[in-house]
Amino acid sequence: MTPHDAPSADGIWHHCHLLPDADPERAIRDGALVVVDGRIAWLGPLASLPESFATLPRHDAGGLWITPGLVDCHTHLVYGGQRADEFAMRLAGASYEEIARAGGGIVSTVRATREADEATLFAQAAPRLEALLAEGVTAIEIKSGYGLSLDAERKQLRVARRLGETCRVAVHTTFLGAHALPPEYAGRADDYIDLVCGTMLPALAEEKLVDAVDAFCEGIGFSPEQTARVFDAAARHGLPVKLHAEQLSNLGGAALAARHGALSADHLEHLDEAGVAAMAEAGTVAVLLPGAYYFLRDTHLPPLALLRQYGVPVAISTDHNPGTSPTTSLLLMMNMACTLFRMTVPEVLAGVTTHAARALGAAQRHGTLAVGRAADFALWRVQSPAELAYWFGRNPCAGVVRQGRVIR
Ligand code: NIG
Ligand code: FE
Question: Does residue 353 line the site of ligand 1, with CB under 6 A?
Fold first, then answer.
């Protein structure tokens, strides 16, 4: 079913409680949400519903909670194959970095992605997207980075765009050409960065396949100098940047990203105070990825106390990818962010709504229920929004409305 065939959500949603912007203090019990022409026309306590809407059709929400559609702001959803064998190698004692340096890791997914055609990549990614949608996700970021050649990166980004067109979720694409060094460039990382900046990005930006630019700044990825070149190229194309930073070590990537006005710096287990301060100054969102932390059995916690102290907005995401976070549950990530990172329930609610939307550079479109916005929301069979973070391995999502259509 495409959004166009789905039933209209126009009318008054009543017999519900509303969480407009993730702040429990602003929750509205016994609320009403009015949708007109697919947009939110009013929201507030049912008792204050303006007379002018009284004749609209009514949707009895059955006492459910309504939140903004959730936002998954960091995913690598489109790729070929899977890496269960590598998981087994890690269980037998090999480290993620050892596997990567031995030609496995990201590069093994690059091989599988290059071999797959667009139809295959689409067919494999669509059910993953559906699983996210079933948990109330209405906006998602999808990165390239498993092609590492112009044609193969284009293929991934075209599939991401097609998923956005047909699968009922808003898709923001990110070009991650600087994710790993492709084998044909072994020993020539600077030449590969030339290709990324001089050929791949210009072509893909011209084809309107790129909404943002990312890189992997790490010992097994690219240096801060190489990352800065990618950021400069993004700026020449007027594209915002973000960065995989401080995941396995501290190269100062977050501060570098902040200096380039990055939307977000992501992972951040090894972030230091200077990086936190730089992010606060630049308004860069910290995207924490508890799935990768868990799956790599990391023990180095991101510096949450410092992020709070400096007022850095924190988002939470699945980081869905075959190597470090093969999960399709954003709700599970909320739970893990609480249990593993000691985040609070209001923090993780903001982390998958308002702050995640900001990490996409789309705070005006996603993550908040507000008058004038497209009606993107999720309905939850819970007694309080805290239950979104409380259950794990259980999905209380009872319905999803996207662009004013009831798609689930
Ligand atoms: O976000 N850290 C780099 N990139 C991905 C993992 C990619 C992979 O192992 O395939 C991440 O964790
Ligand atoms: Fe990632």
Answer: no
Q: Are residues 61 and 74 in the same domain?
A: no
Half-sphere exposure of 177 (CA within 13 A, CB side): 35
Number of domains present in the structure of the chain:
2
Global pTM reads 0.98
Tens digit of each residue's pLDDT, the chain (408 residues): 466 789 999 999 999 999 999 898 999 999 999 999 999 999 999 999 999 998 999 999 999 999 999 999 999 999 999 999 999 999 999 999 999 999 899 999 999 999 999 999 999 999 999 999 999 999 999 999 999 999 999 999 999 999 999 868 999 999 999 999 999 999 999 999 999 999 999 999 999 999 999 999 999 999 999 999 999 999 999 999 999 999 999 999 999 999 999 999 999 999 999 999 999 999 999 999 999 999 999 999 999 999 999 999 999 999 999 999 999 999 999 999 999 999 999 999 999 999 999 999 999 999 999 999 999 999 999 999 999 999 999 999 999 999 999 999
Ligand 1 atom 3 nearest Cα: 216
**Based on the domain organization, do 337 and 376 belong to the same domain?**
no
Measured distance CA(247)–CA(292) in Å, rounded: 9
Residue 64 is encoded by which pair of tokens? 């459910």
387 and 313 in a common domain: no
CA 288 to ligand 2 centroid distance, Å:
10
- Is 266 among the annotated ligand-binding positions? no
Q: Are residues 47 and 186 in the same domain?
A: no
Choose the residue to mutate in 96, 97, 106 for probing ligand 1, maximizing ligand atoms within 8 Å of C-beta. Answer: 106
Task: Name the closest-CA residue to atom 9, ligand 1.
Answer: 323
Beta strands in 117-271 (DSSP E): 137-143, 170-178, 212-217, 242-245, 264-267
Q: State which residues form the domain around 20.
A: 11-68+368-406
**Helices 150-166 & 118-133 angle (0-180, nearest 10):** 40
Instruction: Give the whole-angstrom CA distance, residue 363 versus residue 374.
Output: 13
Domain-embedded: residue 1: no
Q: Is 319 in the pocket of ligand 1 (CB under 6 A)?
A: yes
- Does the CB atom of residue 214 touch ligand 1 within 6 A? no
Residue where a domain terminates, one of 323, 340, 360: 360
